[in-house]
Give the backbone structure.
Amino acid sequence: MAQLSTLGGLSVVMETKHPVILVQRLSWRFYILAAPAAILAPLLADSLQSLFVVRGGIRFYQAIYSLYLASTAGVCFLVGARAVITFFILWLFVRLGFRDRTVWICLVFLWLFTDYLLEPAVIK
């Protein structure tokens, strides 16, 4: 049940069959902290993927960081596009009431999984 109030002080009760989704209003603090966090999520995933590749005895050029050394513009596009996607996914889920750290950690694992899917494309 949702309760609506009118100007005259009369309250009206509206019954719905669908659940009411409460959306949180976000503060400026969220936006200030979410921007660097959105950039750091793909960078952390790339760092972990490169660490696992090199530690596993595979050559460095098969790691995602080899793309960072090849082209600066490519790195800006690769990290920037994933940072924008991370920011909007983080914004959506935090507004729906999920914890921001939990969503951010899940996004790091998503980008880590994506890096492993991109690994054959990195092999020269």
